[in-house]
């Protein structure tokens, strides 16, 4: 399935505030992995942002869970840069009172989805 209204996906400030921020206490490890495996830092964050927005429109989405906040979706994508390549998991929510997806998290994969779509991604929680 496609992410509903993926063409209206919003990244917010997750990429710069958390996923690529070496100063963030929890995001630091992700920032190190993105830098070392893909060469992506805050200075060239557009590489990741463009890939995420493209995946929101064209990627295959899987419903991860439904809760009191809305419906959570996962989209995996392959990202290749001049430095290297990696599988990426992007996590999205469509809140109950909204009709567009918001990015909730991004992870560099250390594995792949199992057949039942349970996660075996490092630290992957919403």
Describe the protein.
With 126 residues, this protein is an alpha+beta fold. It has one domain. 24% of the residues lie in helices and 29% in strands. It has 3 helices and 4 strands; from the N terminus they run αααββββ. A 4-stranded antiparallel beta sheet has the order 1-2-3-4. A hairpin with a 4-residue loop joins strand 2 (70-80) and strand 3. The protein is globular. The two termini are 20 Å apart. The model is unreliable at 113-126 (pLDDT under 50).
Structural topology:
Layout: H1 14-19, H2 28-38, H3 46-58, E1 61-67, E2 70-80, E3 85-95, E4 102-108
Q: How much is the radius of gyration in Å?
A: 14 Å
Poorly predicted regions are 113-126
As a percent range, the share of helical residues equals 10-25%
Order of helices and strands: HHHEEEE
Sheet with the most strands, sense and barrel status: 4 strands, antiparallel
Number of helices: 3
Overall shape: it is globular
The domain count comes to 1
N-C termini distance: 20 Å
Q: Average pLDDT, to the nearest integer?
A: 89
Residue share in β-strands? 25-35%
Give me the count of strands.
4
Placed side by side, the strands forming the largest sheet appear as: 1-2-3-4
Main attributes?
four-stranded antiparallel sheet, 126 residues, globular
Quick overview:
The protein has three helices and four strands.
């Amino acid at each position: 399935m496609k992410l509903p209204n993926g063409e209206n996906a919003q990244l917010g400030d997750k990429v710069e505030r958390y996923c690529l921020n070496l100063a963030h206490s929890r995001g630091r490890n992700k920032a190190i992995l993105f830098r070392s495996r893909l060469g992506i830092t805050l200075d060239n964050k557009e590489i990741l942002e463009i890939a995420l927005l493209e995946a929101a429109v064209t990627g295959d989405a899987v419903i991860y869970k439904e809760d009191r906040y809305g419906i959570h979706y996962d989209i995996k994508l392959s990202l290749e840069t001049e430095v290297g390549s990696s599988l990426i998991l992007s996590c999205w929510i469509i809140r109950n009172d909204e009709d567009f997806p918001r990015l909730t998290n991004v992870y560099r994969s250390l594995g792949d989805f199992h057949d039942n779509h349970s996660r075996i991604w490092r630290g992957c929680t919403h």
